[in-house]
Every structure is written in structure tokens, then in C-alpha cells.
């Protein structure tokens, strides 16, 4: 038996070393500390359980920034460079929420004093959070929060990660060739975790998401490319776009209750319903004209919810699609995620509509114009990372 166990240990040793050296299985708290001390570090897991929600939560907790962007992955393209002169005060915690339950858990922990109150919050809201029958699942953030402090991934995660490793030997060999240094040879920045090592994608120091693969694809073919199937999902009324009985007044009240938690601390709050692509917006309007059940949640969950939020004295912006700004779908990462360039347009509009005495109004809109007018800027990126030089 001892010989057998030693044999298994010998087989797993290279795997374990590779996972630790690459940063793939480092405790999330370690990664957060690592990034605080290395602003060039881009991080993200690829084979172990996604820890993005916890990573964003701990980053807010440890950094205590005074300007937050919080929401789902659709908020990830707001960048510190857009918030001049508050770049050092900014953190993008987009991706911290996957549903309304995550927001409620976050608000509860905020109320308990686990997070230092910021001066301003920009909260993005997804319509599918508010539709009937939306929350059969649990809070991912709550689960990860309860597991925080675990030094090493669970055995279940180890098994599935090792299985993926065996199924992709070419990827494994590539990682072995790269783990000699945290500065990966094909990217001009440091990387922790297999996602940025293998794809160039990951979270930057300010919490925003670098979509290196999408940017490179656009450089090769400068047109809108829906690679994640969201357009088909909308056309077939599945997943996020599955018809329901309509807007849930219960979920809407729970959303408002969470927002009130932040408002009670005299925090400046702005809310935003992010856009979908022009193509998906057209699909939704066609469904509306057919008097489809889709009408009873998509447009209600934006228009009606936005009205209720405004009645609370909190600004709420609904951006339907790039067409609202005279843009085409090239400014979308995919059907539901706007690019950093599109987000810059949205932020500038929010600034122009904000009260003069607000923090938001103090953000330098001229600086945003300069970013948009850079010669290097393309519809999906400001091109500061040198992605065109990557060897993916």
C-alpha cells in the first residue's frame, strides 16, 4: 500500500508543483495580496473552481477604495483610467454578483461592517435578476465567503482539474514550458493563474477584465463576433432570455432593500442597466411585437424597475444597446457584455447627466474623450496592453 501511495505521489508531484508555481491553486486571499503589491499582475483561474466573486470581495475589503463599481460580469469593463482624477480611489468589483441573492448577501455583510463604506457606488443590474422564478439557485458569493481561509482546493476540485489536465496534454506541456517565471514570455505583464498564462485573459489590478482573446480576434477580423451563443439564446428564448410570468414585485423590493442599505450610509449611488447587442435588442423587440411572454419581464425588468429606483431618489440609467449612442455591435465583447470603449461612452453620458455637486460630476470627461480619440483605440479596446503582440 505504501509503495502504491508513493507511486501516486510521484505521478501527482509535477502537477501539484505546476499548479502552485502558476498560481492556479493559490488561496484567493494570497492572490489579492500578491496583486496589491504588483500592479502589473493579471490573475484568473482556468481549471480550478472560479473564485472571482470572492476575489472581488476580498479586494474591496483589503483595499477599501472610495469608488466602487459593483455588479455582474457585465460591469467588468469600467477601468480606473476612465475615472480621472480618482484612478487610485477606484476599484471594479464587476463579477462579484451572479444573481440577486449575491447582492443581498453582500449588502448584509456591508451592514455588518465587513467593508469600509465608499464615497460612491455604481451598481449595475441585470434584468434577469428580477424576473419571476429567477432565484432557484443559491448565492455563490455566500458559499465562497464561507469557504474563505481554505489553504488548498477541495479534493473534488483537485480531481476535476487533474482530469482536465490529462485530457489536454498540449496545454499541460505549454504550462510546463512557462512556469519558470511569473512573467510569462508571450505577454508584457505578470500572470497568476492558468487563465492569463494560457489565454492572456484575466483581472487587472483595478479589477477590470482583460479580454485578450476577443481583442486579438477583432484585430484579425474587425467585425462583431458572437462567440458565446447569447444571440442564439435570445432567439430561442432560453437561459437568461427564457420567458416568465413577468417582473417579480418581491424581487424588485428585495433589490430596493439592498440599495437602501448603501444609501443609509450617505453614499452617492448610481445604478445602470447595461446594454445588450443591437442584434439581441432587435430580437427582444420582435418578441414584444408578437406579444410574447418575453414582454412581461425584459422591458418591465428594465423600465419599471428603473422607475422604482428613481422614486427612491437614486439615478438609474437604462442603456438598451449600442444604437442608443449611434454605435454598432463592434463595441460589444459579445451579446451581453459591452467593451471598455462602449462603457467609456456610457460613463461620459452618466457624468453629463449627474448633478454638479456629485462625485460623478467631478470625473474628467475630457480625459474620456482623449481615450476614445486615441489613434490606437479600436471598438473593443483602448489597446494599452499591447495585445496585438501576444502569441496566443
What descriptors fit this protein?
15 helices, globular, alpha/beta, two-stranded parallel ribbon, 392 residues, 5-stranded parallel sheet
Overall shape: globular
Percent in strands = 5-15%
C-alpha Rg, in Å? 21 Å
Tell me, rounded to a whole number, the average pLDDT. Answer: 85
Distance between the termini: 44 Å
Oligomer: single chain
**Total beta strands:** 9
As laid out across the biggest beta sheet, the strand order is 3-2-4-8-9
Structural class determined from secondary elements: alpha/beta
Largest sheet: 5 strands, parallel
In the residues, how many domains can be counted?
1
Helix-strand pattern: HHEHEEHEHHHEHEEHHHEHHEHH
Would you mind describing this structure in some detail?
This protein is α/β, with parallel strands linked by helices and 392 residues long. It has one domain (26-389). The chain has 15 helices and 9 strands. The strands form 3 sheets. A 5-stranded parallel β-sheet has the order 3-2-4-8-9, covered by helices on one side. A two-stranded parallel sheet has the order 1-5. A two-stranded antiparallel ribbon has the order 6-7. Strand 6 and strand 7 (209-210) form a beta hairpin. Helix 2 (28-37) packs across helix 3, helix 4 packs parallel to helix 11 and helix 14 packs antiparallel against helix 15. The longest helix has 21 residues, at 2-22. The protein is globular and about 60 Å long. 44% of the residues are buried.
Secondary structure layout plus pairing:
Elements: H1 2-22, H2 28-37, E1 41-43, H3 52-63, E2 67-71, E3 90-94, H4 100-111, E4 120-124, H5 140-147, H6 155-167, H7 169-178, E5 190-192, H8 194-199, E6 202-203, E7 209-210, H9 212-220, H10 230-235, H11 249-263, E8 268-273, H12 278-289, H13 300-311, E9 316-318, H14 340-353, H15 365-372
Parallel strand pairs: 1-5, 2-3, 2-4, 4-8, 8-9
Antiparallel strand pairs: 6-7
Helix pairs in contact: 2-3, 4-11, 14-15
